[in-house]
Amino acid sequence: MPLTVRDNSDPCLTRIPFFASCRPNRVGDPNLDNRSPGNWINKAAFQVQPLGTFGNARRGILFADGTENVDLNFAKVTGITERTSLEFRAEFYNLFNHPQFGVPDLDFSAGNNPNFGRIFSTARFSNAREIQLGLKLYFEIIGKAHSKALTDFEAAEPYLEIAYLPSVTREALQCCTDGFVLSIADSSTLAIAVTA
Q1: Is residue 114 part of a domain?
Q2: CA 15 to chain centre
Q3: 160 within domain boundaries
Q4: In a domain, 44, yes or no
Q5: Which of 53, 43, 65, 58 is nearest to 4 (CA)?
Q6: What three-state secondary structure class fits 152?
Q7: How many domains does the chain have?
Q8: CB under 8 Å to 17, separation ≥6 — which residues?
Q9: Of the candidates 185, 183, 140, 174, which has an alpha carbon nearest to the alpha carbon of residue 193?
Q10: Residue 90, pLDDT score
Q11: Which residues pair with 86 in a beta bridge?
Q12: Is residue 164 part of a domain?
């Protein structure tokens, strides 16, 4: 992003609201080879212009810090059974934790501003490193006949059955104590029934 140095002490005598167009004289290269947040601009490259005149410094002669960001994503899907798999994800945002600096103080103020050329914040929307881990279980829902009722989930041994029951209403399933209901859509219901 191009930046413009201004002189808000208004040696141009333009008065508010036009003093923002007042710029100092440029006498050297304002860019430093080794910039830091405490010293982003070569202050010796500017000097006060004669009172009542505009300086020769052009607009957009400096640039803000660019964006340096590396995001990385790992994903591994492992099959557990024929109908079940497990996905592990590791996501890294701003992996190297590179700071994105904000805009330096651009007010020359006749050379009297001690903060001229210094950066006091990071760029808007810049974030420190973020690490996100995720685990997701994929499973296939077994379709059941429309006439199947929750009372049909009986077995001699304890079991867990996940069934898609399009014809059974939420109210019918809520009457039972050994299962819970999660609504998928207006006309269908997912029931997880546990019996012993």
Answers
A1: no
A2: 41
A3: yes
A4: no
A5: 58
A6: helix
A7: 1
A8: none
A9: 174
A10: 95
A11: 78, 137
A12: yes
Structure tokens at 151: 């009372």
Other Cβ atoms closer than 10 A to 162: 13
Strand partners, 73: 91
Which of 30-34, 96-100, 149-153 is predicted with the least confidence, judged by mean pLDDT?
149-153
Question: Do 70 and 96 meet the contact criterion of CB atoms below 8 Å apart?
Answer: yes
Residue 171 domain boundaries: 141-195
CB 100 within 8 A of CB 124: no
Give, in order, the Cα–Cα distances in Å from 162 to each of 92, 144, 158: 34, 10, 14
Give the angle subtended at the CA of 151 by the CAs of 145 and 156, to the nearest 5°: 105
Q: H or E stretch including 46?
A: strand 46-47
At residue 135, the pLDDT reads 93
In whole angstroms, give the CA distance from residue 35 to residue 42.
9
pTM over 0.90: no
**Paired residues of 126 in beta bridges:** none
* DSSP 3-state of 173: helix
Cα(69)–Cα(129) distance, integer angstroms: 10
pLDDT tens digits for 97-107? 988 888 999 99
